[in-house]
Structure formats: structure tokens, C-alpha cells
């Protein structure tokens, strides 16, 4: 680089650079190892569609796709994250493709915390409908490597089975026609997308449940779970009738819509983590997704309709139920969370358990709702790499099945 700059300075000083001559000379100065490492290829990587991840890519001299994922950054912090990847490889059917992905040096709560391990997976689809989960290798430089054969001219690759804004819109359109449900717009995201609350059941039912999904853009598992839950509650079968006699459900299904639309990993469009800073009211401009949720909650509380339980559904590589442990007497809350945990174990494939007594993550929705609003709340993490209880890597169908079973959990929780 130094030599390149010096050469340019000399050329400028001598007045030797002019017109197209500049471009030729500069190109000649690009270090050989870099220029040679970019090969022409009959493989193209498409990142220009809904929820595709921003990514720089090249084909190296061995013909492999090398994708440099783009970090999602938090405002005024060191935190950055890459968990989401979603792109389309285009090549002739039968082509053997090797992909190397890099930039997994995440910073979480101000410390390095890469999720990349031998347990990491990717999902692949040749029609963006039927997905399969496959294993990966971790190669030096904390990079992910995997190979596959093109079974069609297009191969969609993603970190988890994608759930896009358009998938949500399809569900909302179905719900809109159902007498048991209603969709209300409560505000707008930073980029102006609408934020909806879905209500399922009778507003005057004895108990109320609030669910939020997709505060973090890559965590599609929460949306698939909501799909399954909505499907069950609107099935109008005997179980669904029994559930809705006891409780009414309110759902904010996709808090971080902007991040989902843009194929980002974690933060909202302003670099705000929607599962942090719940110890105080959110700023309307920087975090409208949280601001409008809180406005709606305050309205519910004023109308004597405070939720009796709130769950914030996420994805991580652990799969635990994150119990809040603020200072003060939380004996009753902990007893209720014990009950929730045992019901999850009994009625669903959940086996990962609750976080230990030493675990605290202040500022999450779980802790903020409990301390500021008096709502019993927890963060429910779904392991996006492996479901222990099923002994398999998760696909959308598994999370939908979890969503189908959750209403039974809440029925007994509210007993
Ligand atoms: Zn999350």
C-alpha cells in the first residue's frame, strides 16, 4: 500500500497522470496477490432480493465463492453482529460449489462472542420453499466452509429458514378475515414500515398474554413459532375454544421489520438494539419500534388490560428461557417462571431449561417489563442450531409445531 501511494505521488508530481492514463497506471499498481485472487467464473451470487444479506463476494483462484458478510453495528457501542446470511448462488445445474463465509467476529455486550462453531449449520433450497439443514466446517481465520451441488440453476443459502416481511403480510391478510382476530397498526418503524399488533380471542377473557417476535432481524424462529401459534388458536377446534375462553393473545409479530427487509442481523435501522435499554422509555425517533409498543402497553394498562404474561421470542445458540432477576423481592415471579418452565418441558419439545440464578442481562424486555410495568415477562430463546428435544437441526416446520403446542402451555399457566 505504501509503495502504491508513493508511486502515485511521484506520478502526480511529475505530471505524468492524465486522462485514461491514470486508470491504467493505478490498476497496474494493485498488489498482484489480490488481483490474481479474483477469478472470472460462471458462478454469480445474487444479493438483491427481499431479506438477502448485504455481502461482498469474489471467486478465488480455486474457484470458490468467498463471501465477506457485512456487520450490523450498534449505535455508540462496540457491538456488532453477523448471524444472518441469505443469498442466491446462480450456476449451471450439476456445478459443484464451495462457499467460504467470513466475518464472524461478533461483539456482544462489549466482548467478542462469535457464534460460529462446528455445531453451526446452513440451510439450502433450490426453490425457496423446501429447505434442508446441512453442516459446515470451520476453517482457519474463523471462516465457515461448505460445499454443495447445484440441483437447479439457483440455490438459496441462508443461516436459518427465512421468514420475510412478505411472509408476515400473507399471514396478516389471512388473520384479517377471521372473526376471532383483529390486526391493529400501532405505529411505524424508523423507516416507516407499519407495526402491527395481532389480537386473537376475546378482549374480555380472564387472562391476557403478550408475545413479541423478531426484535433481532435474523431470528426467524420467532416468526415461524408465531405462525404455528396463530394457526392453532384460529383452528376453531375444541382445544382452541378451550384456550380462548381462558385467555386473549396479543402479538407484535415482527418488531424489527426494517432489519428483516434489509437482510440485517440484529439492530434497527438506527443501530438500536430493541432488546436493550428497557430500563427507561424508548426514544421515539431512535427506537420507534419500542416507543410505539410501550405507548400501546400503557394504553392497555390504563384500560385495565395489562398482560398477565409477556414473552419475547428470540433465537440463539443456547435455547434457554431467560428469567429476569432484577434487585428486590421477585419470589412470586420466580415461582411463576418455574411453572412456565415445567409446562414448556411437559407440553413441547423444550428441554434446554431456564437460565441459572447467576445469569442477568439488564435492559432486556423481560427485565424492563417486570421492573417498570409490573408485567411478568421473560425472553424465550429458541436454539437455531439444534433442537435437543427432537435431536435435529430446526426448520420452519419444527418451530410451527412448537407454536401449535404453546397454547396448551399458556392454558395451564393461567389455571
Ligand atoms: Zn435475539
Fold blueprint:
Blueprint: H1 2-13, H2 20-29, H3 32-36, E1 44-46, E2 55-59, E3 65-69, E4 72-73, E5 80-81, E6 86-90, E7 96-102, E8 107-108, E9 111-112, E10 121-125, E11 132-135, E12 137-139, E13 143-149, E14 154-158, H4 165-176, E15 181-188, E16 194-200, E17 207-213, H5 221-233, H6 238-246, E18 247-252, H7 257-261, H8 288-302, E19 309-316, E20 321-323, H9 331-347, H10 365-373, E21 377-383, H11 396-413
Parallel strand pairs: 3-7, 17-18, 17-19, 19-21
Antiparallel strand pairs: 1-6, 2-3, 4-5, 6-14, 7-13, 8-9, 10-11, 10-14, 12-13, 15-16, 16-18, 20-21
Helix pairs in contact: 5-11, 6-11, 9-11
The protein binds zinc ion (ZN).
InterPro entries: Cytosolic_carboxypeptidase, Peptidase_M14
Family: Belongs to the peptidase M14 family.
Protein name: Peptidase M14 domain-containing protein
Give me some keywords for this one.
415 residues, alpha+beta, Immunoglobulin-like, Aminopeptidase, seven-stranded mixed beta sheet, five-stranded antiparallel beta sheet, 30% helix, 25% strand, globular, disordered N terminus, binds zinc ion
